[in-house]
Specification:
Chain lengths: ~475, ~200
């Protein structure tokens, strides 16, 4: 079933992105950008206070509180559920709570059973479903594209706009396919795949495009793996990333708190089955990757595009022809304290961070636990394990994963954004080097002067044991 | 929003590419709940270095930032735009911007224009040779001018009109309130809701 808002059948083959887009157009007049209806608006404490202020000043309400959900994640501590020591962090959290109270928005606060990183909470509640438009004042909103939705990060002005109107004016992006043929080799994860993609495209390669990840390797990914891939779409500049929903998607959604039931479920699934790119639909661009050639991938520099195989070495900036790229690489090596030519496996780390909206879901914790079980975190290495949500934490504990981590000498924490960004107490100190399952290795991202290598959960766990960048096969 | 048409001022050359929004303003500076006061966080990681271009007297009064490609990639934080504005910048010129940053800048009247790398290189050369060189970013004519040279830039017609008129997006959208309501009345009933019933 392919519909347009006017109720007419589409006459030409369309991509998945075009179908979801068309079904959310409130206004399309060719002069202004299209006005898109927003199905789900997620909020957190950092990018919303000024938006609520704007509403207040204009005397406006939240148009659809029933399509809006807030959680606390960026500022929250992960060592306890009650005390936010930093007064400015506390003020921001308290402001969110007061705004939600005043405007009637549902909120999951620190200590609540449903609290967690906003992009883990949406899917786990079943609020993220196929064929939706999902926005949040957070660039990793692209995560929700794993369900076949158009999901993207917005700024605070746009948060205010969505609160007031439940719509957003958007120019229609171009479409791109990333086709991954064949199966991922044993030991290669969704994270390795997306880090490889970003190393090919650079940080701006996806600009202006909604990307559809497809092909056998993508179909074979779990929902968690698909979320990891879509999550990092923004790291190569894409407007959004999405994956066509299939039986795996429906099975993941079914039975969750906000999943449709009974006849509604049947109607929803009937609609969702149509959400795939039509035969003959044309993408504006396509990238094709052979899954068989992939291996564990890590970053060496200060943006997510500066990556290399774990089996590789720190590149030589002199090899870059473009002078700006060369100096950017030189700056990156200076910041990272790395010498060109050093094998990645010889890079020692001080901290291992397992968590974030990229890799803080149950499957990520399981993958790391499998590697670390019966082993010990190396002397001098601090490994932090931070579940993406209170529910993930609870499930991991029910499976005994917390014991696996603590017996290995890792630190088992409460849910939150934690060390993904230097906003809460979990931060690197200057010069400290981390292997991190998060999404950004920018200068200072994990704390002023901190040095970040982005890795998969399995590589994170192996690195914690080895004390230097390593894969499970190295142990 | 105040109207944006053209701006003339001196320029600061930032010879770096991939200046992500974490560099423009680190997360630790994002905790304010107001829209102002973010100037202290601008490029905070780099400002400890006395040689950093922002610390050089020659460029102290610059109001136009000229940066390398992929400026403003990464986090959606609008604070990056507020920090640049609070510091005194009116315009940013770069070969390419991160999408969300660009959108945020235009909502706040910070003029962001894309010029080819060669033009940016020429502008860097000109303002480094003479920091008093005046640069004009002209949204009306869609061109950047300096030292008798000019470089045309592309700019979305609708975004340009909105900036030149200083229009508020929410007010513009609410002119279509009837269409929004009509769309809502046709939405599938099974679409998820965060609350038991509409407010």
């Amino acid at each position: 079933m392919s519909r347009t808002p006017q109720g007419t059948e589409a006459t030409r083959p369309r991509t998945l992105a075009e179908k979801v887009w068309d079904d959310h157009v409130v206004r399309s007049d060719g002069e202004q950008p299209d006005l898109l209806y927003i199905d789900l608006h997620l909020l957190h404490e950092v990018t919303s206070p000024q938006a609520f202020d704007g509403l207040r000043q204009a005397g406006r309400k939240v148009r659809r509180t029933d399509l809006t959900l807030a959680t606390e994640d960026h500022n929250t501590p992960t060592d306890n559920l009650f005390t936010i020591a930093d007064p400015t962090s506390r003020k921001q959290i308290e402001t969110l709570r007061a705004n939600c109270e005043e405007f009637g928005v549902r909120i999951h606060s620190l200590g609540d059973a449903e609290q967690g990183v906003v992009h883990v909470v949406g899917p786990q509640l079943g609020l993220t479903q196929p064929g939706m438009t999902v926005v949040c004042g957070d660039s990793h909103t692209s995560t929700h594209g794993a369900f076949g939705s158009i999901a993207f990060g917005i700024g605070t002005s746009e948060v205010e706009h969505v609160l007031a109107t439940q719509t957003l004016p958007q120019s229609k992006p171009k479409t791109m396919a990333v086709t991954v043929n064949g199966s991922l080799p044993e030991g290669v994860s969704a994270k390795d795949l997306i880090l490889k993609v970003i190393s090919i495209t650079g940080t701006g390669g996806g600009k202006g495009h909604i990307v559809e990840y497809r092909g056998q390797a993508v179909e074979e990914l779990s929902m968690e793996g698909r979320m990891t891939v879509c999550n990092m779409s923004i790291e190569w500049g894409a407007k959004a990333g999405m994956i066509a929903p299939d039986e795996k998607t429906f099975a993941y959604v079914k039975g969750r708190d906000h999943a449709p039931t009974g006849e509604d479920w049947d109607a929803a699934v009937a609609y969702w089955r149509g959400l795939k790119t039509d035969e003959g639909a044309v993408f504006d661009r396509e990238i094709v990757i052979d899954a068989a050639e992939l291996s564990p991938f890590v970053t060496w520099g200060t943006n997510p595009g500066q990556g290399v195989e774990l089996s590789g070495a720190v590149p030589d900036p002199a090899a870059y022809e473009d002078p700006i790229e060369r100096s950017t690489a030189e700056n990156a090596l200076a910041y990272m304290g790395l010498e060109a030519g050093t094998p990645m496996r010889e890079v020692g780390v001080d901290v291992v961070f397992l968590g974030s909206c990229t890799n803080g879901r149950i499957e990520d914790l399981r993958a790391a636990a499998e590697v670390i079980k019966g082993r010990k975190v190396a002397d001098g290495v601090n490994m932090m394990v931070v579940p993406g949500s209170a529910r993930v934490r609870e499930q991991a504990m029910a499976e005994g994963l917390d014991k696996v981590f603590t017996e290995a000498g890792a630190d088992w924490r409460f849910a939150g954004c934690s060390m993904c960004l230097g906003m809460n107490p979990d931060q690197l100190t200057p010069g400290q080097r981390a292997a991190s399952t998060s999404n950004r290795n920018f200068e200072g991202r994990q704390g002023k002067g901190g040095r970040t290598h982005l890795v998969s959960p399995a590589v994170a766990a192996a690195t914690a044991v080895a004390g230097r960048l390593a894969g499970p096969a190295d142990l | 929003m105040e109207k944006v048409t053209t701006h003339t001022g001196t320029a600061l050359p930032l010879r770096r590419s991939n200046v992500d929004t974490d560099q423009i303003i680190p997360a630790v500076y994002l905790k304010r709940v107001t829209k102002t006061g973010f100037e202290d966080g601008l490029f905070a990681e780099w400002r400890d270095d006395p040689k950093f271009v922002l610390n050089q007297d020659d460029f102290r009064d610059a109001t136009i930032l000229i940066a390398g490609t992929e400026f403003g990639t990464g986090s959606s934080r609008e604070h990056a735009v507020w920090a640049l504005k609070d510091y005194g910048f009116k315009a940013v010129v770069a070969p390419r911007f991160g999408d969300i940053f660009r959108g945020n800048s235009l909502k706040n009247g910070l003029l962001t224009v894309e010029l080819p790398s060669e033009a940016v290189e020429e502008l860097w050369g000109a303002v480094e040779a003479d920091p008093t060189v005046e640069v004009t970013v002209d949204l009306v004519e869609k061109e950047v001018r300096a030292q008798g040279r000019s470089w045309a830039f592309e700019f979305d017609d609708f975004a340009r009109w909105r900036l030149m008129e200083g229009l508020d997006d929410v007010a513009l959208t609410l002119r279509d309130e009837a269409r929004i309501a009509a769309f809502e009345s046709n939405r599938d009933a099974w679409r998820p809701r965060t609350l038991p019933s509409a407010a």
